Each structure stands twice: as C-alpha cells, then as structure tokens.
Amino acid sequence: FQADGVYARVVSVAGSGSIAGAVSFAVARVVNTVNGRAEAAIRGTSLADGQGVTAGGNVVIRAVNANVIEATNIAAAVSVAAGGSMALSASAAIAVAENRVGTSVFAGIVAADVSNSRGVIDIDARSTGTITALTDAAAASISVAGTRAFGLTGAGARATNSCTATTTAGV
After folding, report:
1. Which residue, 15, 48, 79, 132, has fewest beta-carbon neighbours within 10 Å?
2. pTM reported for the whole predicted model
3. Model confidence pLDDT, tens digit, residues 62-73
C-alpha cells in the first residue's frame, strides 16, 4: 500500500498607485511505483529419493499479491494586481501524477513429486493492483486598474496510471 498527498499553493498580490504586477506559479508532482514478486511453490522433490510430498488430504499452494496506490495531487495558483494606471497579473498551476504497479505472481509445482491419497491438489495464483488518483489544478488571476488591466491564468492536470502483472499457476 502506498499513499501520497502532494499539494502546491501559491498566492501573489501586488498593489500600487501607479503600476502593479503580480506573478504566481505552482507545480505539484507525485510519482508512485510498486513492484513485487510473490511465489508459493513445491520444487525439486522426488518420491524415489524419499523427499517427495505425500499428503493424506488436500494440497493447497496459493500465492497472492495485492498492491494499492492512493495518490492525491493538487496545484493552485492565484495572482492579484491592483494599480492606479496599470495592473498586470499572471497565474499558472500544474499537477502531474505518475502511478505504476508491476508484479509477478507464481504458484505451482516445479520438478517435484506430489501425491495425496484423498483430496485435491489446488494451485492458486492471484494478483490485484488498484490505483486511485486525484489530480487537479486550479488558477485564478484578478487585475484592477484605472486605465489598463491585464490578467492571465492557466491550469493543467495529468494523471498516468498503469498496472502490469504476470500471474502464473502451473505444474
């Protein structure tokens, strides 16, 4: 389980009786990577050598891998400019999240002798990957002036999520 929270906030304020300018910029970036391997196996046993596996009931071989990523990534930028004759204001916010889950799960019998007098041989391999990502960006720009007022704002958010797994159950 991996949880991250990244928050970027910025506020820029300028005031003047003549010319005022304000600039803001915020960047929030989060990168989560979870890789793992889970294995449950009976390997290299031989009944002829007296090292095999003999059971009076069920034989259960189970490998389970579960990965969870929860990521919150927020960027916000605000700029305010007030001037008597001219006011300039700019603002930008960028939020980027990259989340990756990659696992390998194996359950099985490899080059081994396994016998049971009653019951079953149950081989189970499971892999789950869950990614929950909240990525958001907000920007605001306010300009007030007696003659000329300019305002510019921008916001961008991107989340890239991938789950890759190799899951094998076999004899």
Report:
1. 48
2. 0.75
3. 999 999 999 899
